[in-house]
Amino acid sequence: MSRSDITRRLKRHGVAATPQRVEIAKILLDRPQHLSADQILERLRQEGSAVSKATVYNTMHLFAEKGLVREVNVDPSRTFFDSTTRPHHHFFNIDTGELSDIPDDHVGLQHLPLLPEGTDLDSVEVLVRVRNK
Ligand SMILES: [Zn+2]
Domains along the chain? Predict the structure, then answer.
């Protein structure tokens, strides 16, 4: 994805396209993938970027809030950012720490509970935890 594509995409989501934000977005939006903020920081460092850890964290949470990326919380200490924003589900491998996609139509939910009064269904996300044999 080119710099101008990224800039357009940020603007479409109401995010001002500062050079640092474009740099950070370029890492994750490059292809369908799941990266933690630390992994994004590591790649930025490899490319010689001096963006601070706080900027990466703040930027990723802003992107998630604006719907540019999806935040996937595996457990309280592990958050991934997903470049795929359409509805889908995930496998999480406890042994390798790897998150991978399950297509939306591969999961069927026949029995959803009654929703709490005064609420509408927004989305259902399934996280299937697996371990190596
Ligand atoms: Zn995903």
Answer: 3-82 (1.10.10.10), 89-130 (no CATH)
Distance of CA 88 from the midpoint of ligand 1 (Å): 6
pLDDT along the chain (133 residues), means of 10: 92 96 94 95 95 96 96 91 94 94 88 93 91 97
pTM, 2 dp: 0.87
Distance 13 CA to ligand 1 centre (A): 19
Strand pairing partners for 72? 80
- Which of 70-108 are b and which e, b meaning 16 or more Cβ less than 10 Å from the residue's Cβ? bebebeeeebbbbbeeeebbbebeeeeeebeeeeeeeee
